[in-house]
Design brief:
This is Putative secreted protein (Por secretion system target). Residues 1-18 form the signal peptide. By secondary structure, the chain is an alpha+beta fold. The protein has helices at 14-17, 33-45, 58-61, 136-142, 183-196, 219-231, 236-249, 254-257, 260-266; strands at residues 107-111, 131-135, 150-156, 162-166, 174-177, 281-284, 292-297, 306-311, 316-321, 329-331, 338-344, 347-353.
Length: 354
């Protein structure tokens, strides 16, 4: 979409915490591992209201205020973060229950965790934390295939989402791969679902699951979801959607509010070595030896009002206001040695503090 629109990302920042009801996660203090996951299950189950299967929440939760900023449908299968979208939908006007038309005809409701895996049971079927507004035809192409990373694509959507043979080590089936911009969104939805339905998920049949109520995911998929989460940190779009769904069904996705919980429960992987996630942004020197870096990109960086630095567990460790108004040099705040991600607008890259 329009290149001048900002995608402001925050992780564990004060802005995001201001949206969380006071005391919502107070019972998690001191917990880690699967006991933390179980306590989060209790928190997000308590108060969760099944609002049935309807279109109401999409009008507030799924409008594009981040790319074109035109209030069109925020569809992860048609969004082009760095250029013109292949098509746009108007909320309500272009919704459909079925269609014989090509991609770009209408949008419907995507169960990111396929409903066949839980036999259409409720409240899973009606849980809007994993229900997204998406193009009807792309939704159909995705079908009930697991998310994954495609080796050879048999079909590609107009925004670059792909269907094809998996290249994951340990899984050779057909998978669907969204574009990089939304892989972290999908990962945090899956970690939410694994937590919210901890007591039921052992009975769900899905190639991504290992049959347990704790770890939930088979190794190839767990490692992939952890990488996606680390490579694509929490976005303002996710924060706004989390708040909208909370206002509607009265529970939250804890991994949008506190992305660091994922590492505390499932661990981390070396995720930041995938160069495909670094988008048109460079840092020098890299590795960083001192407290300053010079940032360059393929567009005018002055347009970006904020820059965010994340560690490898998804925590926002530094936010810089108006970062490029007086040049391209940024000062780092005593960052420990390690690997980090710098994100500004839709641009991001990794760097190492040595």
């Amino acid at each position: 979409m329009k290149k001048s629109i900002l995608l402001l990302l925050v992780g564990f920042s004060g802005f995001m915490n201001a949206q969380i009801p006071t005391g919502y996660y107070s019972q998690t203090t001191g917990l880690t591992g699967f006991p933390l996951k179980t306590k989060l299950r209790d928190i997000v189950t308590n108060g969760h209201q099944d609002k049935n299967y309807n279109w109401v929440v999409f009008a507030t939760a799924d409008r594009d205020k981040y790319y074109e900023n035109d209030n069109s449908v925020m569809d992860i299968y048609s969004e082009n973060p760095t250029g013109t979208d292949p098509y746009n939908y108007t909320i309500v006007t272009d919704q459909c229950g079925s269609s014989n038309g090509p991609e770009g005809t209408c949008y419907n409701r995507e169960h990111t965790i396929p409903k066949s895996t839980f036999d259409d049971r409720t409240p899973m079927h009606n849980d809007y934390h994993h229900l997204l507004a998406t193009d009807y035809q792309v939704n159909g192409k995705r079908s009930n295939y697991p998310y994954g990373e495609v080796g050879t694509a048999s079909w590609t959507s107009k925004n670059g989402s792909k269907l094809g043979n998996s290249k994951l080590n340990g899984y050779g089936g057909i998978v669907f791969e969204p574009i990089n911009e939304f892989k972290g969104d999908i990962a945090r939805i899956y970690f939410y679902f694994a937590t919210r339905y901890e007591n039921e998920i052992q009975s769900f049949v899905y190639d991504m699951y290992d049959g347990s109520k704790t770890k939930v995911f088979k190794e190839p998929f767990l490692n992939m979801l952890l990488r996606w989460h680390q490579q694509d940190p929490v976005s303002l779009k996710e924060i706004d959607r989390n708040n909208a769904v909370y206002n509607y069904q009265k529970n939250r996705n804890p991994f949008v509010d506190h992305p660091e919980y994922i590492a505390q429960i499932w661990g981390t992987v070396m995720a930041v070595d995938d160069a495909s996630f670094s988008k048109n942004l460079q840092i020098a020197p890299n590795p960083v030896k001192g407290s300053t870096i010079t940032v360059t990109g393929d567009k005018d960086l002055k347009q970006f009002k904020k820059a965010f630095i994340y560690n490898t567990v998804g925590q926002n460790v530094q936010t810089i206001e108006n970062p490029f108004q007086n040049g391209n040099t940024l000062t780092l705040k005593n960052l420990p040695k390690g690997v980090y991600i710098l994100k500004t607008g839709e641009l991001n890259t990794k760097f190492i503090v040595d």
